[in-house]
Design goal:
Two copies of one chain form a homodimer.
Chain A: H1 5-12, H2 16-23, H3 31-44, H4 50-57, E1 62-67, H5 73-88, E2 92-97, H6 102-114, E3 119-122, H7 130-137, E4 142-145, E5 156-159, H8 161-174, E6 180-184, H9 189-204, E7 214-216, H10 224-235, E8 244-247, H11 250-262, E9 272-274, E10 291-293, H12 296-313, E11 322-325, E12 328-330
Parallel strand pairs in A: 1-2, 1-3, 3-4, 4-5, 5-11, 6-7, 6-8, 8-9
Antiparallel strand pairs in A: 10-12
Chain B binds a DNA duplex through residues 4-6, 14-18, 20-21, 24, 28-30, 33, 48-58.
Chain lengths: 338, 338
DNA sequence: TTGAAAGCGGTACCAA
DNA sequence: TTGGTACCGCTTTCAA
């Protein structure tokens, strides 16, 4: 059916070993022989059989990616950047979506391990670090992205979460806000980090961070705008009213925005709002939203590079590296005061 | 390193052949033997080596997906649905993004063919049907989605494009619009179909479809809102002004919306607007946008099923099937007149 | 610099 | 119902 090494070897009157070495630039082969081999390969459009190679070398030249939700722009941007880097290095990318379900995520990990991927990259929805033990057991390199876990020293690529909160809060302060509230997210590392950053920016500026100024949004996913609206309505009952709000993410910020407008207040004049994620294009919104960009492409690139280097060096997790990228403030109308 | 069939066989005092057959539910094996084999497999958490199996059977149990842009919600929803179906059938999904670049797309096709995927699913950015010849040459089943080509009878899953245009236009007519314009997309099948639907709905209602009422948006991708704004500004120079506009997609519709509001006109009272794609949540927008839903999840599912059935039946493209799903109108404020 | 032989971990065929 | 044997296409080892 397809062309095999054997065919090339026969055509050229050499052995398959010679062909194999020529393909992989083995120093054994004379330039002349290599040239003949490569030419014939081109002519026949020969493609080595990966399965056969995998069987011998144990490497699949494929990396697995597991994300909570492929439709979320953050994760699809990560996936896109990842795919780009892997393409350059001739690796394949197997993607699966855990649908924010920890059990399904464990399933997918097993599946990808069964496929013998060379490395795994995971944006985990787990509550505990348990499932990563399995991966380590199999000796497969893995990189966590976006969310990390207490007590698990694993290779990680993400953004400086505290800096996110500081950047947003400092910006509100710079815009003249005096009472800055926070609508926080769930009990996962990015949410906790951002909240800590909010607190730090306030204390550095000798501002109060009263407990009443922190409210939780009951949902932070796609339906987060409802959660954000509820949360903002609770903030709107406080006296004195906050005049600036840092929201855990953009959907929540949108909900908050809606609540403020419904109450007859103005954004940003009465209350300024900052989101996070930078996922919503300004032209689409009633009030274009100031947000914090998390450099999702950068996260994808770094994660890919880290995974590849772990594969190459074969050093499992001697000293797990952590890469934290810096977030960027994107100023739009929701905070722009003269 | 990992457990092999040989280990199971030795433990149980049977041959590897027996184990192999037991795993695959071959009718040869006695229930008792099968039971013993399966139990031992559980105990050792044995996972068959896919590469070895692939080498013999020629099947990789992986399907390749190529999309123009993974970040576009339409394609990520397709990918998500695809992944779900394939997971149930124990297939892997290799994803790559062609970045809307025909040359890159051809590259990716070669890559995935070299990986010997069992089938390919492609939302193509090609101008011609040339590259599909290569796939057919390799005897690999493939399914096109979203965009198709004149003169190429290939398996296809998409939406009834004409129906999209008709649904949108009929809705505008039902809302009392009398002069309905269209902002069209590029020279690809969905854009042409939607335009044809617009024309058909008008003619069925004995309305005029003057050429001046069709304008092109210079971009239809993520930056489509600028293109939509430009196009709408051109429509706003016409006399009489249109009082309804069907836009090729949602980003264009958003741009059109902006142009109308900037001109001091009201939506939907002065001009009603319909988009397509249903990608923008209503709560985010200045005026929530009426749109046509394309059932992206359905497209993903059907494409997966079609690819799987082509793999199973081994019938290449005897009679290429075409599946056209029905679009759905989602009414929101941008057209809601009393 | 080249190649013969062994083997990676399974499956297919056919005989027992 | 079970299993011996050949073989899938490639890489590795070691001898020539």
């Amino acid at each position: 059916m397809a062309v095999r090494m054997k065919d090339i070897a026969r055509d050229l009157g050499v052995s398959t070993v010679t062909v194999s070495k020529a393909i992989r630039n083995h120093s054994d082969i004379s330039p002349k022989t290599r040239g003949r081999v490569l030419r014939r390969i081109k002519e026949l459009n020969y493609q080595p059989n990966l399965a056969a190679r995998t069987l011998v070398t144990g490497r699949t030249y494929a990396i697995g990616l597991i994300v909570p939700d492929l439709v979320h722009p953050f994760f699809s941007e990560v996936a896109k950047a990842l795919a780009r880097v892997l393409r350059e290095r001739d690796y394949g990318l197997l993607i699966s979506s855990s649908e924010e379900d920890p059990a399904l995520e464990r399933d997918e990990i097993e599946r990808l391990l069964a496929r013998r991927v060379d490395a795994l990259i995971i944006a985990s929805t787990q509550r505990t670090a348990e499932s990563f033990r399995r991966i380590r057991e199999e000796g497969v390199p893995y990189v966590l992205i976006d969310r990390r876990f207490d007590g698990l020293t694993a290779p990680f690529v993400g953004v400086q979460d505290e800096e996110v909160g500081e950047l947003a809060t400092q910006h509100l302060i710079d815009m003249g806000c005096r009472r800055i509230a926070h609508i926080r997210g769930p009990e996962i590392s990015p949410a906790l980090g951002r909240m800590a950053g909010w607190r730090r920016a306030l204390s550095r500026n000798r501002r109060a961070a009263p407990p009443a100024y922190i409210v939780s949004s009951r949902s932070s996913d796609d339906a987060g705008d409802n959660g954000g609206r509820d949360a903002m309505q609770r903030l709107l009952k406080l006296k004195p009213l906050p005049d600036g709000v840092f929201c855990y993410n953009d959907p929540i910020a949108i909900g908050a925005l809606r609540a403020v407008l419904e109450r007859g207040l103005r954004v940003p004049e009465d209350i300024a709002i900052v989101g996070c994620g930078n996922i919503l294009h300004s032209a689409f919104l009633r009030v274009p939203l100031t947000s914090i960009d998390q450099d999702s492409a950068g996260i994808g690139e770094k994660a890919a590079e880290m995974a590849l280097s772990m594969i190459e060096t074969k050093k499992p997790s001697a000293k797990p590296k952590t890469i934290l990228l810096h977030p960027t403030l994107i100023v739009r109308d929701s905070t722009r005061r003269e």
